[in-house]
Amino acid sequence: MKKQRVDKVVTKMKENGIDQAIISDPYSIFYFTGIMLNPGERLFALILDVNGKHTLFHNALFPIEQDLGIEKVTLFDTDCPTEALSKKLPKGSTVGVDKALVARFLLPLVNKLTENKFTDVSQIVDRIRMVKDEEEKELMRKVSLLNDKACEKVIASLSKDKTELQVVEDLLAIHRELDIDGESFAPIIAYGANGANPHGEPGKRYLKEGDSIIIDMGGIKNNYCSDMTRTVFYKQPSKKAREVFEIVLEAQKRGVAAVKPGVRFCDIDAACRDYITEKGYGEYFTHRTGHNIGLECHEYGDVSATNTNVVEPGMCFSVEPGIYIPGEFGVRIEDIVMVTEDGVENLNKFNKEFVVIGE
């Protein structure tokens, strides 16, 4: 067990009058135990108890040999998960449930334990996961630098003879070459007008002269995720495309520069959005400025106009403004940043300035 992480949750549970917490999100269970499982439809849950009587439930199909210093309960397919959970929840206690516990387990438990109070514990867990400890910070640095190397190789692989999907294949091969464990999301390679869709799906398009090329990619290493976007151009981009790129680049730099402890997430969003609006392209910036990242590519928390929470040292999130002109092209530039004690550390070092390939 990761005692310091567990202790933080237990402290918050006590402050909020929660006696036990059922954690069923596999990423959160890994965060506390170091055990990563994908149990499918079977129960996989960690009960955290304010008195220290923590219990991990797992199915016999997913044996756990490690000594975690807590009780482990092995369930078989013939067992009733509700019955097993209920035995660890004293009558009348207040039980926190995370957002991942599915209804087929939660509803029978609520119906069985009529004298218990059930409440949401996700805010506690998610907010603690937002602030990375020293071990996590180093893992985030390493995976982001790997992503830099991969992106450089992907850009070098671009060719007028390759479709978007063929570049994706190159990207996957580059990940294997760099010993990256997998993709943190389905990569986006979008040429020209396809890039005007922020989540344009790679297809069988070939490059045309002047096309923008959006490369949105991320990998996983040691269970932690990276994410970055670069936009480059093929041969001679239009004057408008160059102008839009420079606006997005300046907006992105302003967003990164705004990051420091105590600043609100919405103010970082405004640093990007207000500049793009000032330049006349506000209607074409159609998404939030960023998202938090760690064990998952999209974790709790975002850089948006509605998030008035303040950033804290150790938080990691993306800064990724974009402008998308329907039927023409798109531009997005994204870095992952980490909040430091007095400012910001940009985890992506790879060039994001204006680049033209194929000349």
Automatic annotation (TrEMBL):
Peptidase M24 domain segment(s): 138-341
Lineage: superkingdom: Bacteria
Domain Creatinase N-terminal, first and last residues per copy: 5-131
Protein name listed in UniProt: Creatinase
Species annotation: Gemelliphila asaccharolytica
